[in-house]
Write a structure and sequence with these properties.
By secondary structure, the protein is of the alpha+beta class. Helices cover 55% and strands 18% of the residues. It is built from eleven helices and twelve strands. A five-stranded antiparallel sheet has the order 2-1-5-4-3, with helices on both faces. Strand 11 and strand 12 form a beta hairpin. It is rod-shaped and about 165 Å long. The chain starts with a helix and ends with a strand.
Amino acid sequence: MSLRVRYFLLIGILHMLLAVAFYWILSDYSKWYFIGSEFVLLITLALSVSLFRNLIRPIELMKTGTNALVNKDFTVKYVETGATEMDQLIGVYNQMIDTLRVEQTKTVEQSYFLEKLIQASPIGIIILDFDGKISDINPTAAKVLEIELKAKGTMLAKQAHPLISQIIDLEYGQSKLLTQNGYEKYRCQVDRVIHKGFPRKFIIIADLTTEILESEKEAYGRVIRMMAHEVNNSMGAINSILHTVAEYGFEHDEADPELKDSLLLAADRNKSLAKFIDNFADIIRLPQPRKSNHELNMLILNASKPWEASAKHQNINFEYQLHVSDIVIEMDAAQIERVLSNALKNSIESIGKDGVVIIKSHTKPLGFTIMDNGPGLTKSAKDKMFTPFYSTKTSGQGIGLMLCREIIDNHGGRLELSTNKDDGLTRFVVLF
């Protein structure tokens, strides 16, 4: 039973009892007394109704205001009625609504600004819910982890990117430098934040690859320039002396011919040393690519034919899996041929004897892949493969992959090197 019904039921019973009482008491007196008593009852009834309206008005106000608060409608305000108690209540309510409206506007603006900031941030950001599902992800993180933006609501742990398993293992507040493809470096940090009113797992992924590569290049470039300067200056003078002695110091019959041959051999070793230094200098002298349209399949065939002939002597076969249609790419053909030659040389040296090299071109993704069935890469070798001057070969200089990486980076592409556990093939992948 509502308050309204109970109130009027009570007022009705009281007035009925008063009317009966007035009838019994005043019926023996003048009828005017009785009529006057009935007027009094009508007046008290009207006052009761008016009092009920005044009493019920704040309750109705509170009900309407509560509905507005539930619906987050902070535009509903009330006009003062002139009643002191009612106006005090209305004043408090209106002030509260104004405060809530301002706070709501501020919160919405901050949330919108934060959302835009996250989406536009050059740092990868991922927000997870309690179940480890992706609540929010910005384009940078999606690109790094190769996740589609529509993957929101899916489990991060179920994504296939190799970095994800390392990120999942990080504890709250932990920051760690993670490596991908041997040279891509990412600073990852995991923290807990309040997002949209709930605590969330907050993952930050900062791509440090460019900064680290530039620092490395500047460091080894300085060393190479110093080495080249000292070696070339010394080699020129030494070779001049050796040739002079070999030509004019052995004119007599008693001269030892073996000593002359040794001097000439030393001069040749000096030339080899100078060429060795020049190979290092190629890295810092590498020009920016002069791009033009070239057909990828034809470029692959031209670069691989010389190596195919030499590989036959080691019983290594070349297998071509070229795309059926022409693939035209804007690139520096000479530099890309250099990358192909280096990759084929490494595959042949890795196999040694009796093997196969598979050369594949593809459009999805755009690029080419060179595969071999050599012994493959160990984990430590893969992590250090693109480290300056690191080589798994006893006679290696550790500059071939560095040069390839530099060329592909300058083309705006991506270089990957890995050994697949399923088929045992080592893949050298270039994506444009």
